[in-house]
Structure formats: C-alpha cells, structure tokens
Amino acid sequence: MELRTASSPKDVKHYTTDRLREEFLIQNLFVAGEIKTVYSHIDRIITGAAVPVKPLVLTAGDEIRAEYFLQRRELGVINIGGKGTIMVDGTTYELEYKDGMYIGMGAKDITFASVDEANPAKFYFNSAPAHKTYPTVLIKPEDCVKVELGSMEEANHRVITKYILPGQVESCQLVMGMTSLKPGSVWNTMPCHTHDRRMEVYLYFELPEDAVIFHYMGEPTETRHIVMRNEEAVISPSWSIHSASATRAYTFIWGMVGENQDFDDMDAVAMKDIR
C-alpha cells in the first residue's frame, strides 16, 4: 500500500509539475494479477484497483493496523473491465461492465475474480473509515439516480449516475458515482466549485491511448493542472477545485468522503473569479 500525506494549499502553489504529480496523481492502478492501493491522509481514503487473472483476496496489510480490510472501513467498487465476481463472506455477486457494489464494515472475506481471464474484470474501489455496518448491495447503473446536465454549446453535456448516496445505497460517509460526457463534450465541473466538508478522488477512463485530459486543481485563484491519461486517478483535497477538459469525451468515477454526504453542498466559484 502506497502512503500519501496531506498537503497545504500554501505549499501547493509553489509545487513544480513533477511535485504536483507525485502528490496527487495515481498511475498504474490496473495491473493484471494484482491489487494496488493508495492510502491518502486526506480524510484517510484508500483508492485501489483489482485486476484478477486468478482470484485475488483483499487483505488489510500492515498499514491500516487491522485484522482484515473492512474491520473499521466500508468499500465502494465499480467494474470498468470484463465480467467479474466479488465474493463477500461466502456470497458471490456478478458484476458486468459499470456495475458497482457497496460492501459494509465488518465483511471479512472479500475475493475478486474474473469470468474470462483473457478479458479480466477491472475493479476500481474507494474505501473510507466507517462507524456502523450498512448492508452490502449490488448496484446496477440502470437502477441508479441519473441527472443530465450541461449542453453541447457549453461543451459539457453529461449524465451523472449516482451509485452510493443517502436514500439509495446507504453508507457511513462514502459517496460514489459516475459521470459520462456525451460525444463532442469535453468539460466537466465547469463552472467549478469546492466543498470544504469532503474531499474527492476522480478516476478518468474510456479515453483512447493517444488522448489526454487536463485536470484542473488548486485554490480558485491559484489554479494548477495535471495532464492525465486513460485509467489514471487524481486526489482532490477539500480546498481544491476539481475540473477537467480533454481531447475528446470521456467518463470518470468520483468518490467522496468526509464530514458531509450532501451531494449539493458545494461552494460555487464564479467564472469571473477563477484564475
């Protein structure tokens, strides 16, 4: 498990490109036959991925000082690869492309597997500290709350699919979902915002290998950018904007943890104020 410490906005404004990438960019998550994890001190979120060629068991490791991974945590998972299965304490769940799961605190035995090893599942996950056990749920995107926003004129016509949130799939603090841009649209979360009460991690995917995405971060008047590519993730502190434009349409998974689960609790940044 890779460990990342928190960063002050006063320091970040002086970072070089390499330092920004070192602190906030998560690369090489999807490795065949492995589970990769990154632990951030920002709200203690764990971002990870499992690509099972053979079945892979999720273990706690030494870093979280637990008997098993979800002893004091909850987990949200979305599959962005081939058909796969997740076995939770003896019960097996099948996940097609873009199916998700919420796995509650206390689940001890978690195994990721692929139905076709030649086309393995790619299980992307976020995990947050938990204080209560909520039911484990298989999540189908067609059953989720969907919101259509933006327009082609603004190059941000998109559909937001909410997987884990109060009133739909309950959790202690984790909120998770997916945003898909329509063909011809390239902007997300612009006009931008911050939310002091929770942080966020974005995973960008469905980009061709030669495409790039510019993720914008930083304080609204001290913006920076990180150039990203397909299936890379980025950590966004609560004080930072989180927006992007790309060379073509794309999809991203957002995961939020922190004090507040209210999706609409955000501090908007006027276009005239961003710089």
From TrEMBL:
Domain of life of the source: Bacteria
Metabolic or biological pathway, per its Swiss-Prot or TrEMBL entry: Glycan metabolism; pectin degradation; 2-dehydro-3-deoxy-D-gluconate from pectin: step 4/5
Cofactors (names): Zn(2+)
The record's free-text note on cofactor binding: Binds 1 zinc ion per subunit.
Keyword Isomerase in annotation: yes
InterPro entries listed in its UniProt record: KduI, KduI/IolB_isomerase, KduI_N, RmlC-like_jellyroll, RmlC_Cupin_sf
Key word Repeat present: no
Any GO BP annotation: D-galacturonate catabolic process
GO terms for MF: 4-deoxy-L-threo-5-hexosulose-uronate ketol-isomerase activity; zinc ion binding
Assigned keywords, A-Z: Isomerase, Metal-binding, Zinc
Entry EC no(s): 5.3.1.17
Annotated binding of Zn(2+), by residue: H193, H195, E200, H242
Catalytic reactions of this protein: 5-dehydro-4-deoxy-D-glucuronate = 3-deoxy-D-glycero-2,5-hexodiulosonate
Main function: Catalyzes the isomerization of 5-dehydro-4-deoxy-D-glucuronate to 3-deoxy-D-glycero-2,5-hexodiulosonate.
The family this protein is said to belong to: Belongs to the KduI family.
The protein's name: 4-deoxy-L-threo-5-hexosulose-uronate ketol-isomerase
Annotated organism of origin: Candidatus Galacturonatibacter soehngenii
Gene assigned in the entry: kduI
